[in-house]
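Write out a sequence, fold above all:
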Amino acid sequence: MTSHLLLTLLVLASFDKAHLPTHQPRGTAPLCASNDLYPNLFSKAAALLDSLIRDHPFPDGNKRIGIAAAFFLRQNGYRLTALPEDLGAFALCGVESSPEIPEIANWLKERSAPEKGP
């Protein structure tokens, strides 16, 4: 697990326990296994986006905060190239149709580009 994802999870854990996610991450490997449940950057970002949008850890703004996946990608060398309205529509779609993590990861990957060096 990358340090950025771990930091994000620790920040979320500091909030009121009543608002923390209630479901386990979607996948087939046990959480204690040595296999990485989300093996690449885009699947990790997708799991973050999915968890924040579907689990409603905050009283308000969960779809907006779900877009934190874009910041997670930026911290890891990618920038999201999707238009803001497309990102908003996709976040809303995540609530209504519950896409699977690989589908979200593909959407993010198709709309991301490596950051250019300094």
